[in-house]
3-hydroxyisobutyrate dehydrogenase
Amino acid sequence: MGIKPVVAMIGLGRMGLPMSKNLAKKFQVLTFDKTQKNQMKIAETFAKSDVVVIALPRASDVESVLEGGLNALKPGSLLIDTTTVSTDFAQRVGELALKHKVLAVDAPMSGGQPRAISGKLTFMVGGSSRAFEAAKPILEAMGERIFYAGEKGAGASVKLCNNLMLASQMIAVAEGFALAKKLHLDAASLYEIASNSTAKSWSLNEYPPVPDVGSCTSPANSKFEPGFSASLMLKDLSIARQVAINVDSPTPLADKSAYLYDYMVHRADLGQLDFSAIIQLIQNNYPDL
């Protein structure tokens, strides 16, 4: 690859669009999104790129893109998939890339839209050490913490474990604020104390599910406009639970969390909101929780 490689960003959603803007500060960037008009076809985009970064919602979207573009990638190119997928899927993509003589990493991200905008995402990366070193400068243009998790599939595995923990963590924080309201406690006071006590966590400190406390970028301050939607959290949690079943690892708390996010998405019809809006289920005493 040249000094300034051509990087294609596939997917211009809530995460992909700000990621592409940060990439453009350091690299030549091509973009592809199915909602764009008058754009290059996917194969043409791949053919003109040295690096392809994928940021799509689901494995099926990734599969569709690779079917249309992978054959067009030049040998020695680099494929970075930031989508949250199963371990098996990430490993299959890695094997497929290898057959095409393309370096590949699974590099799911954490931090939500605010950190995508600020270029301060965290990436957890799986792949060969050679592929990781090739991907590092690209990922550093979009994030501030780049972790090597291990061989192909390891990045996906870490992300699934992370989101499995995050799902239950947010519910616990929401329950705490809901209880505080019933006890006539001031939310800002609870935040100030709990965020400096043993309840300290990302869900509380950086992403509180109530407005006017802590981070001004919390979706609670914008009527829960999603940084990470409840429907996507349910998707990730479902993948994580299936992976856990495959390796016989019990997930009793995640099972209950999945029930609540499924309720939020399919029964309360709140799936388009940020996942932190789970507090609305708890505060409004929805039946059968």
About this structure: The mean pLDDT is 95. Residues 6-151 form a domain with the Rossmann fold fold (CATH 3.40.50.720). The chain has two domains: 6-151, 157-283.
